[in-house]
Here is the input.
Amino acid sequence: MLKHSPISYLLLFVFSSIGQACSPFEGPVDKEKSDSYYYSKSKKEVRYSPMGNWFELGNSKVDSADVESFEVIDRDFGKDKNHVFYKTQIIDSEVDKETFIVKEFLCFDKNRVYVPIDYTPYDLRGLLPENRYMMVIDRANPKTYVKVDSDWSKDDANYFYNYQRVDVDYQTFEVINDHFAKDKNMVYLLKSFSLLESSVDPATAQRVDERYIVDKNNLYDFQQYRESEEVDSLVSFKCFDSNSLNFLGKSFLLFDDKVIFDGVELPDVDSRSFKVVKDYYSKDKNHVYAGSKIINGADPASFEVLETTFYSKDKNHVFGEGILIEEADAETFGPIDLNKNILHKDKNHTYQWGKIVEEEM
Here is the structure.
């Protein structure tokens, strides 16, 4: 066991004493409920300091707070005989003071369910009027509202997707996976804050994994974004035998005579000889693939992926992310050392990210 010298304990005591002496607080209001509400040194004020880190995150007076009656509701909420507070702000005009409670980062009163502004998804914050701190969840019943998971919640009459009510058949609605949901009438595509309708057959639609679904006709993949561009793309692949669906690695899906990578079908693939080499590299008897693209000129028999997976090579060539590095000598190409593993060299040059560089870096 590690032992500390007496001088270490002395220094720890000194620094702890200095920290306590410099602290602007007398102590927490209720340390069991919040690490952010404190009494001032004089105990004449209530202060708000996130996690008590006054030096870096600030130390603000809770204006109008009555010290004698102030009590903590939750980490960022308090009340006194006159007001309800969110951090340092009075929110009396936004909520019912008498019935207001906080539970699992959500707020409730007898009339509504709320999401505090700092817990609201960033894209929704612009919907709040200026100087408002609580987003009302439209039509949510505070008596029955519950969170289902990080994206979904429900009450006795409605489902909510990222706190937005969705118009679905309540009795038959179900979430299939991360990208699809359905009811008796429709299969829905899940965008960040809304649902899109689709032509997928709801009666036979079923989950394949967290990404794909299949119905009686096709396999489906929905991508809201592709290469940082919003595309809202639903791609379908004819699927004759859903029982043949088979995953290889984390990203490759095989069925019938097809291979899919990241929602894209590999061209000219021989599914019988197909195998994953490493990460997003794969091959069959005829081709080598980086993702869904053929690596032109790569020899399947001798192809290998290096420890730094940016680089791969066969008996004749070296590739950087599947692109030929024309100057590289395959026989002598390899890493310089383990500490600079993106730096590689052959008998002629040193390379970084597939480009020739000076060796003295």
Observations:
- The radius of gyration is 30 Å.
- The helical segments are 6-22, 54-57.
- Residues 113 and 142 are 5 Å apart (CA to CA).
